[in-house]
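ingest -> fold -> write
write: protein_1
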Amino acid sequence: MRPMSHKPTIVTIFGGTGFIGSQIVRAAAQRGWVVKIATRIPERAYFLRPCGAVGQIVPYHCDYSDPQAIADAVKGSDYVVNCIGILYERRKGDFTKAHTAIPEMIATACRTHDVKRFVHISSLGVTGDSRYGQSKKAGDEAVSRAFPDATILRPGVVFGAGDSFFNLFAGLACLLPALPLIGGGHTKFQPVFVGDVTEASLAALTLPPLGDQDPRGKIYELGGPEIVDFREIYARLFRHTGRQRALIPLPWGVARIQAFFLSLLPQPLLTPDQVQSLKHDTIIAKNALTLADLGVTATGMDLILPQYLVQYRPGGRFSHS
């Protein structure tokens, strides 16, 4: 008598080579799942192969503009996670494509191919009136219509090794004698650790569908245990890098003008739309579902920041200060 074969769990991750996506790939592989990374350029996902056994992590070519290509990537998957997101537009309409059109196509494919769970990574920025925020909000609504059981996660500013927030300002502090306080620096943030976002994603895929614990069809707002403004963020930065810099208040109008010119760089340091985003706090709403509802304990910044900001200290990792 031939032994029964066991079908492995298959998870397809869109945007799996990015900051958040790569962490989810690693965590899914640790669970023994087969991980299909749907990406436009499979070669960019090769660095993740050593995170699993031979053949466990599979870079899969997918043209995000083609609904059939997206459907082919989803077909046969038990779970799907969408991590696709951009911080600025190269051309008008990029936000709508990345944050609204593509998530809707993925959600539609999940419904067509009877995917068990679909997790869509969005942003706390949906409350703002920037093009970024509005495209994220439209994407959430489109996903919910196409796949009502989708779990939507809305993280705030995400920090961790390789982030594009603390690393950006730490790098600038190495080059500039002063740093800007856009709009006076009063915007409030609730930074969340990338490891907690990863745990939340896995919980949304695996929690049993029982009562209040059932994550399907729900929206969770993900933030850390601390609410800080830009002055406090800089204070943490200076403490962990050993670099003190002057802070210069930058009125909204001046910031917008500077952002226009900075947006022309190949890798924009700031765009007018990001300035617009900064006019709104990105913190968890009072009655929102949070990390705790997914069984995840939020991690404080001071437990993580020293681990990777040490590279910006005078003398780097070998500094004795």
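write: protein_2
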Amino acid sequence: MASGRDRLLVVGGDSSLGAALADHFSGADWQVQATTRRPDHVDASHPFLDLTAPIADLPDADVVILSAAAARIGDCEEDPAATRRINVEGTLAVARHMAWRGAHIVLLSSDKVFDGTEPRRDRNDDPCPACEYGRQKAAAEAGVLALGGQGAVLRLSKVLTPDLDLLADWARDLDAQEPITPFHDLYLAPVPMDLVARTTAHIAKDRAMGVYHCTGAADHNYVDLAHALAASLGADPALIQPTSCQAANIPAAARPRHTTLEMAIEEQRWGITAPEFDDTALQVTAQAV
């Protein structure tokens, strides 16, 4: 490597998470390329990759971050075969191909590998997914961990970003003095994008292996998130009118009571702790307005 810089390949550069990771590593002086499945976006920094097709020519890399996924729980329930081709078969094909070429593989996974019945799940607990997306992520985890010293998994709870469509819709309605109806029985333990990027960077730099977690400190419902947004907007909190996700026919698998994960190793090794809900919610909603 003539430049002496570590080479990173982000699989899934079209997503907000993949793009943010590419930006973070570029700022840390990594040589970064991020895949795209949009032919009109292909250039020297964005090689083409479609996880539903045979592997195309991919650039050499020292570390590969697998961030592409069909992540909508409803989509996975409705079409498990098609989503599995992306989340398991295509993802593991890239992982094995790039590991064979010497790369260290980091899979971004999800708290949904657990059923959500217990808080702060231990990384050594056996996966017990309650939804198809969780089952697919558990299968992808097993394949990456089978790479041994070349494989790592980073499980994430809800990654909260200012460009979240839900926040934009709520902000528009609150600005117009219209009520919003957040779910009082749907929960999240949000983490900001910058914490995900920093945690991923530690794993990549250390070529760490095994399972890692990045999660909020506690689960809160979406009503709490709505109140944080209203506070950032200076909107009338009386416009927040809680409703039930059960009444909206959201399946039980998509509304676990707990999404938190324990983060003992991350704190001991890198000084990373699970952020408090108020800190994350206020930080992100302030950026969204």
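write: annotation protein_2
The chain has nine helices and ten strands.
The chain has a mean pLDDT of 95.
pipeline exit 0
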